[in-house]
Design brief:
homotetramer; 139 residues; alpha+beta; 5-stranded antiparallel β-sheet; two-stranded antiparallel sheet; 7 strands; 27% helix; 36% strand; globular
Chain lengths: 139, 139, 139, 139
């Protein structure tokens, strides 16, 4: 499979007084999944990206649907699929499920920027190559 | 004006190593704005809604665009406008700006549910009436 | 009164599945109270301190007791009292109460550092003067 | 070794504008370590404890020292050692280190309560037995 997958356990700190995940915590999980994907799937950690490279990858749009609630102790499988790469942008689809039911789906656009200027900065060759390999496997 | 507005200062805890708001924190701000709107705009606090009434208003979809970054110390004006009310659902538009620039815009759908069953539950009359008044003022 | 006080409402995002404040959220509130105190009580905002001045005030020790749980909708009064100022350190006492009961008490030590080097940096004259005035009022 | 240890990677979401861990996030890590210890070390998950058993284990005091800052990408080893068990209380020591330097140390007291009443509730036999075994190994 060409998509990247991480496991995320639902902890006490993710849950609200209704006993289910407080939805802003899902966006922390999405960010952590993307962070793991950059390091393990694309070969460039956020420490390297933000540190020595002086880049960042802010999210500029994200559309999310929450299909079913998640409870304390659930283990989510969060899958990332590359939809499209642009000069400095990247469209991803993120899907989380557990115990046979979808929990949430998101499509998002990241932009690769120069941290100093805040302006879009073309993807580094290593990142572009790694992303293109995933795109070919998917299509 | 028929929309509800809250002020939100950008605190140290909202900001990431790039010195700007970490976007999952925006969803906490959105939730806090909706929470303030229920209490101050619609007359039913979340404590009452979740407590004695046994209801909840989970977000089922949210589409968000982040136009410009926000920095430590910025004060955002977060506006909520009602788009549509259904039997147990509610569509809202949320727009945040500061110093003349848009920071983010979101459209979201809430569902009014029974906490016990997790099933949609028709809006209480007082909430429906308060929302309908806002809708008329907007149109 | 020589102490500084802020109000903090308990929001949905602060509460756990037991319906009470998840205690790590109290440390966000403590940090926000100290941040408000620097800006409103001492006259130097965190944006100025961390930005143009290039300083920071990390917490190096904090001892906390949680006397009573706080619930959704409670409004806490969080008081800050200066205990002692050193060359680059500051000892504070923080006490939160609501509806006549104590919720938590903390004593903490901050250190004023140079962000670049991470090393202690003597208090700026304006901060030291403002803190000393508070100390005299307290004693 | 009789202590329990978990690994915690420092993620983007833990870091502040100074590029180091924002200290309230350490308390989320402490809570997550205790949560993992209950499930993996003591055999009772928080889902079981809070769900079918109707209990909770709020923290009533926590004293913490932060020795050295942690940065994005660091991997902390967080160790939990049992200090003392009472009728319904538990004293723990938590120590986090990475790359040969201490990051923080905490001593904390938990109380085992009945969620309904909020009152202390004697440790269940299985939890008390599991904790006593660890205490014997330590001493």
């Amino acid at each position: 499979m060409s998509h990247f997958s991480v496991q995320q356990k639902i902890l006490f700190q993710h849950c609200d007084p209704a006993g289910i995940v407080f939805y802003p915590r899902y966006f922390e999980m999405i960010n952590a999944a993307v962070e793991a994907w950059f390091e393990e799937g694309l070969g460039v950690s956020f420490a390297t990206l933000h540190g020595e490279r002086g880049h960042a990858v802010p999210t500029v749009t994200i559309n999310t649907t929450f299909q079913n609630p998640s409870h304390l102790g659930d283990v989510l499988a969060i899958d990332i699929t590359v939809l499209k790469i642009g000069g400095a942008s990247l469209d991803l689809e993120i899907c989380a499920q557990s115990a046979g039911t979808k929990r949430f789906e998101a499509t998002l656009t990241l932009v690769h920027i120069n941290k100093e200027t805040g302006r879009p900065h073309s993807w580094s060759d290593d990142l572009r190559d790694a992303i293109n390999i995933l795109l070919k496997e998917t299509s």
